[in-house]
Amino acid sequence: MAALEADFESTDEAKSTYSTQAFALRKNGYVMLKDRPCKIVEISTTEGGKHGGEKVTIVGVDIFTGDEYKDVFPGIHKCDVPIVSRIDYEFVDLSDGVMKIMAEDGDFRDIKLPQGDVGHEIQSRHHRDEVFLVTVVSSLGEEMVIGAKSAEK
């Protein structure tokens, strides 16, 4: 039975990333750099020399921290690509730095109010009693509110 549980866990983990060759990656896509999920902001290729193949230089920004990472790979190198989701939730309430949000299916959940401009915008909309949505990005077990927008009626 333990072997089956181990197989199940590895299957779950496999769903969080997939592999593709470095030369198939594109700007504005995603890639794992230094074990962090990053959005590709710059990508360039150099032709191989006499004995080497094509090299791909990738600059990415961590989707959660904003840190910038750079790495160089052979073009045929298998790079891990994180599966990133963006979901809009209806804002319900804010209390002690925690937002209550509601999914389309009516399920409620709590999530931390983000710092900075996004957090200030959410607080301002809440104080004005606006009806609005918050966008949550998630990948590899991490999640963060990245924006707020008016709810369409």
TrEMBL record:
Subcellular location: Endoplasmic reticulum membrane
Name listed for the protein in its UniProt record: Eukaryotic translation initiation factor 5A
Keywords of the record: Hypusine, Protein biosynthesis
Function per UniProt: Translation factor that promotes translation elongation and termination, particularly upon ribosome stalling at specific amino acid sequence contexts. Binds between the exit (E) and peptidyl (P) site of the ribosome and promotes rescue of stalled ribosome: specifically required for efficient translation of polyproline-containing peptides as well as other motifs that stall the ribosome. Acts as ribosome quality control (RQC) cofactor by joining the RQC complex to facilitate peptidyl transfer during CAT tailing step.
Alphabetized Gene3D superfamilies for the sequence: 2.30.30.30, Nucleic acid-binding proteins
Domain of life according to the entry: Eukaryota
SMART domains linked to this entry: eIF-5a
Organism of provenance: Branchiostoma floridae
Domain Translation initiation factor 5A C-terminal: start-end pairs: 83-149
Entry-linked Pfam families: eIF-5a, IF5A-like_N
Family as reported in the entry's similarity comment: Belongs to the eIF-5A family.
PTM comment, free text: eIF-5A seems to be the only eukaryotic protein to have a hypusine residue which is a post-translational modification of a lysine by the addition of a butylamino group.
InterPro entries on file: IF5A-like, IF5A-like_N, IF5A_C, NA-bd_OB-fold, Rib_uL2_dom2, Translation_prot_SH3-like_sf
GO MF term set: ribosome binding; RNA binding; translation elongation factor activity
Keyword Zinc-finger applies: no
Bilayer topology term: Peripheral membrane protein
Gene name linked to the record: LOC118413718
